[in-house]
Every structure is written in structure tokens, then in C-alpha cells.
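Hi L.,

You mentioned the student needs an example of a multi-chain input paired with its predicted structure. This one should do, with 663 residues in total across all chains.
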Amino acid sequence: METVLLEVRDLRTSFFTDDGEVKAVDGVSFALPLGKTLGIVGESGSGKSITALSILKLIADNGKIIGGEIHYKGNDLLTYSDKQMRDIRGNAISMIFQEPMTSLNPVFTVGQQISESIMKHQNLSKKAALVKSVELLKLVGIPSPDKRIKQYPYELSGGMRQRVMIAMALACNPEILIADEPTTALDVTIQAQILRLIRELQMRLGMSVIMITHDLGVVAETCDYVAVMYAGQVVEYSDVVTLFQKPKHPYTIGLMNSLPRHDVEVEKLESIKGNVPNPKEMPTGCRFAPRCPAATDLCRREMPALMKDVEGNDVRCWIYSEKWEGESEVIVYGEKRIAESRGTETILSD
Amino acid sequence: MTKFVIRRLLQTIPVLLGVSILVFSLMYLIPGDPAQIMAGEGASPQTVEQIREKLGLNEPAPVQYLKYMKNVVQGDLGNSVRSNRPVMDEIKARFWTTVQLSFYATILAVFLGLIAGIISAVRHYTWSDISIMIVALFGLSMPNFWFGLMLIQWFAIGPDWLPDFLKMRASGWGDDWRQLILPVITLGTGGAAIIARMTRASMLEVIGQDYIRTARAKGMGERVVVYRHALKNALIPVITVVGLEFGGFLGGAVLTESIFAINGMGRLTIDAIRTRDFPIVQGTVLIISFLFVFVNLLVDISYRLLNKRIDLN
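Structure written out for the whole complex:
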């Protein structure tokens, strides 16, 4: 049994706007085992970044975590005071962001920005912190670090800046690194470098990583476990091999089919028809029902819970429940699924 | 940095030359014969001719300009037509008064404006923000001459219990520095309002930036985030306004100086315009323009100190 380092239970984060409450994250649960990588995948607006920011309690002023628990080493972070949270941030749990171009402060040198958190969390002198900053830059593969340390962000390329962000995040040997789309803004070649760097550092330092991405390729390459999010909810949660071999939720199947594959020849890539629902007008039943080719009245009427299938993986879909009232064989995006109540096995079509 | 300053200094030369040409052309821009205007109505043709001769108005304009500039470089701005004293002496006597007044008004404006703007931005859309912005709107909309008169009404003429130094003296501007208080408030309030609004807008924009979230994610406290990470970025546009305000105070202290009977550059200029004392007008406008250019140079240098990326190219 793996040790769970961080466990999120039924997390709910809402934004309160003039038009009413927007439930950005609505009952998200997952666990991050020690030393492993958990991927959170979803489209823009699925709530994956808000989930990550909620863990560090970095939600903007008009947003609020309205429920749930975030257990880190047995303590619920949601009960922590601001000061306690500041001691966690950048120290035990740190985060890197999507936009390396704008995530560094333009008016401070690289060295100042890295050493700042070292000075705060490890009580080192300015000098000692700068020495450590140089080491960190070396660790993330930046050439001539003692020169770079005196440079300003505008003097660095996008890939270099993301390396600086990673160095900054690693400054205090965090146990958890949250990477929010760390490669989205970078060139493809640089993307691979950065992902490899994160993986190497993870092995070397024994960190656990939460990798937030919309790119299933990144998931396949880096993650051990995956939570697929749709409209503020986790719709499927399993280990990465199962997810790719036997995706269960119609949304996940749709995502897989919209990817180009080198082993199967397809003339036209499939797409998931329709759009992500407007968070202010969420469907009453399953949130994916309006776009789901297999949706029944039950789906449109009642929201399914995240339930365990026979293999012990989580899926939020009526097809795999006793209550399923549709056909026993369901075709979703060209793939056949046996409804759980009728059979015990989920099989893949050809 | 030294290179930057030198380059920036060299760049002021064409600006200063342009200003001097404009100032010099003042004589010709005003309709009528300058010599006739200065001599006044009913002056004999001989007097007019004398003045023309004295000012060198018979020579071609470029020659006049070169002669004028030659003198300016040597610190000679000509003589006042009215008092016949050197323009430089007339200005010297009043220069520091105006610079002092403008300087303290700028300090007041920056101090009040920054504090109010930061509070407003950090607590935006709360009651403190709304009240600060309403007060700022008043500060911005109040004409100087009215506000100055009100201050005199409330503090200088009004109740007996007020300390003596706040009261107007029959003699007007004295040597007591405390007499600066009311004029500085009059002059600085509008600037404080502008700086407050500018700071608020700039801070709000900066606080929404990704790097502020990064600072928070590093575990920095709110104070460090606001005063270190946000303010340094937000100051850049504010400094421009401060520079412009200071320059504006120098040239625009006229009203305040008139209300408080302060014998500064503003009053000197106005009096000179009224009496058609062209050399004085040229001199004051030239000096104030030079100061303005100099202040802008300082603004550019401080930009560069705040953000190393800002370059002239």
C-alpha cells in the first residue's frame, strides 16, 4: 500500500460574481501518493487550475473554498491560518505556472527572486541564499549560473525562465510540486526538455508531483495516476495504464479518440460535439450528458456519483452502475462498453 | 548607467535648442511691433527707435537669435525693459521661492497620493477605497484659486485660536517657513489626487499579474507582496505623473502665488506679460522650460533604476 501524502476530499471552490455563484470546482477528490505523479487533465475551464490553486489557498478575492478537506500529512490545510499557509507555500508545497514569460517579476534579478524564498523559509543570510540559488540554477541545467543570477527575466528565453521558475519552486526542497501546465507556453522541443527535467528532479529529490495539463501526451509521459476533470468535477480517476488502455467515461473516450495515433490509421479525427456547459447554467443531471452520445433520461435527470468499477477505479457515469437503464452494450465514440449491471467486464472494441 | 545618463543628457540638447527658438520667437508671435508695444502708446518715434536699437531688433532674426543665445549661454538674459535690471537678477530673487513651493507641494502630493492610492488598491471596492476616490475626485476638481481662498478663509483670517504662523500677514510672504504650509497644501492637493488615482490604477493592474501570484505561491506575506513585488512595478507610470506634476507646479504656481501674495516666478511672469516686458517673459519661460526638461531627465533616470529593461532605444 502506498503512503498517501496529500488527499483532497470533496473540494468545492466557488466564485461569487454579480451574476451569482460559479462553481468552478464541485466536489473534487483525489489522492497523491508519495513520490508519484498525479495528472489532472481537462479542457480549459474544467476547474483543474482552480483545484491546484485551492490546495495552496491562492484563490482570487472573489473566490472561496466552500467545502471539502485537503489533508496533507494528516492535517487539513483548510483549517490552517494565513500564516501557517505561508509557511507551507514555496516550502513544503510549491507551484510552477503556465506562463514563464509573465510569472517572474520583471524588476528583480533571477537571484533576488530565488533567494527570497530561501531567506524566508530557511532563515539563511542573503549571501548564503545567493550561493544556494546558484546551485539551484545548476541543478535545473542553466549554463553559467553565477552570471545568470544577476540577470533580469527579460534577458532569458521562455525555456530558461521556466527553468528559473522550477529552481525557485525547488528552493526549499518541497515534498509536493504542483505544475500548472508547465509546458503549454513553450516550444515543442523545449516542452520535452522541461518535462524530462521535472521527472529527473522528481526521482532525484523524491518529490510528489501534481501535473496539471490538457495534453494527454504529457499525461502518458509523466503521470502515474490521472484524474480527468470535466466541468468542475472528476469524471474518471485511475492509474495511467488503465486510463489509456480502458478509458471508461464517455468524455475520456472522446478525448482519446480526438488524439492522433501512430498505431491506428484514421481518416478524420473525432471531436466531442458541443461545448463545455456554462458554469452558471449547469445541467441538472450528468454534466456531460448534453454532449454524450450514450446519454439516457437517467443521465439527464440525475447526477451520477464517482463510483468504483469492478477494477477499483473511479468513474462518474451511470453506464457502470446498477441503475443503468439503457442497452447492455453501449457504443461510445465507436467503442463498445458493456454496462456494469449486466456484465462484470469492461471490454475494448477492436 | 553612466552611459545611459550621458546619452540622455545629449538628447536634451535638441530639446533645449527647440525651446530656446520658441521662446525667442515669442517676440514675433505677438501681433504688432514689439518695440512699439514696449514703448507704450503715445511714445515718440525716437523712443521706439531707441528701444528697437537696444534690443537689436533691426538685425535679421537669425542673427538676433544667435546673439541672444550667445548671451544666454553666458548667463545673460538681457535687461528688463521696465526696471532696467538684468533679467537674471530679477529671476534669481524669485526662483527659489517657486522651486521651494513646487518642491514641497510635490512631496506632499507624492506622500498623500501614494498612501491613498495603495490603500485604495489593496482594499479595492471597499468603503475605504470608495471614500478615498471620492475625496480624490474633489481634490482633482477643486480649482486652486478657490481652494486657496477657502484655506485663507478657514485658517488665515478665521478663528483667533489658530497659531500665528498660519495667518496671513499684511506684508504677504515673509521669511517664516511655516507660511509655506497653506500655499503648499493649495498647490499640492490636486497633484495628490492625480497621483492617488494613478497609483490605484497602476497597483490594481500589477496586483493582477502572474508574478504577484508567484510571489504569493512562494509564501511571501501580503506586506512583502504589496510593497516589494507590486509597488516597485506600479511606481513606473506614477513617476511620470510626479515629474509632470512638478513641472506643472513650477509653471502653474501663478494662481497660488497670487492668492498668497508670494513673490515667485509665476507672478513675475504674469506682471511681465501685463507690462509687455518681453525680456523677462523670455527669461522666465526659458528657465522654467529648462527646469522641466531637467525634471524629465530625472524621471527617465529613475525609470531606468526601477526597471533595468527600459532603454532609450
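You could point out the following to them. DSSP finds 13 helices and no strands in chain B. Chain B has a mean pLDDT of 85.

Best wishes,
N.
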